[in-house]
Amino acid sequence: MTDIGGANVISCELNRVGVDDLIIVSGGTGPHIGAVVIADYTDSEVKIISYGFPNHKEEDLFIELAKVWCHTFQQKTVLLGGIHIDNATKAQIEDLVNQTWDKFFQFMLDQKNCKG
């Protein structure tokens, strides 16, 4: 694992809006909102609308996270947030992406156990 200077690594937070899910994924040294993804489960497929703010790189990762969540729970999902580390190296970015997937899958498992 790459050293990222004691940064708050990755956090996932779930807010229920009725039966729909609002998920916030953030971390690094500068959590922020870098992308917003809306996922809808219709006719056995996930449809996506997304927006990545200029100069932010989270959109592609967040699209994939939202697809997995939406397909797994088969419900409307909004996922937003941002992960930032000043002057991150390619290795640090790769490590953060891997940490995000690990944290997100554990978060999903916890939610699945709560719903089950």
TrEMBL record:
Residues 9-106 form the Prenylated flavin chaperone LpdD-like domain. It comes from the Bacteria. This is Prenylated flavin chaperone LpdD-like domain-containing protein. It comes from Anaerobacillus alkalilacustris.
